[in-house]
Amino acid sequence: MAEIGLRTAANDTDGIVVLIQDGVLLDPELDMQTLAVERDVKMRGLSLPDRIDTVTYDELVSLMIDHEVTSFV
């Protein structure tokens, strides 16, 4: 599923990719804003590349309200 989602996202010039739960284990190299949920990153003991910023779940909810959402779960 991740491959399909990332391929679809790569074609969306206005898109924002948000990695949640085990998705934070991915390291997608996309030419778009990529975020990971901070809590999920910490729970898995990961460090992220500089190109991936973190958001809280509250910030994620705000993003979902402000933008069209396509989920690939």
Structure overview:
By secondary structure, the protein is α/β, with parallel strands linked by helices. The N and C termini lie close together (7 Å). It contains 3 helices and 3 strands; from the N terminus they run αββαβα. It has a 3-stranded parallel beta sheet with strand order 1-2-3.
List keywords for this structure.
about 35% helix; 3 helices; 3 strands; alpha/beta; globular; about 70 residues; three-stranded parallel sheet
- Spatial order of strands in the largest sheet: 1-2-3
Label the structural class: alpha/beta
Mean pLDDT equals: 88
How large is the count of helical segments?
A: 3
Percent of residues in beta strands: 15-25%
Order of helices and strands: HEEHEH
Coarse shape? globular
Instruction: Work out the number of β strands.
Output: 3
Q: If you compute it from the alpha carbons, what radius of gyration comes out, rounded to the nearest whole angstrom? A: 12 Å
Main sheet summary: 3 strands, parallel
Share of helix, binned: 25-40%
Low-pLDDT runs: none
Task: Report the span from N to C terminus.
Answer: 7 Å
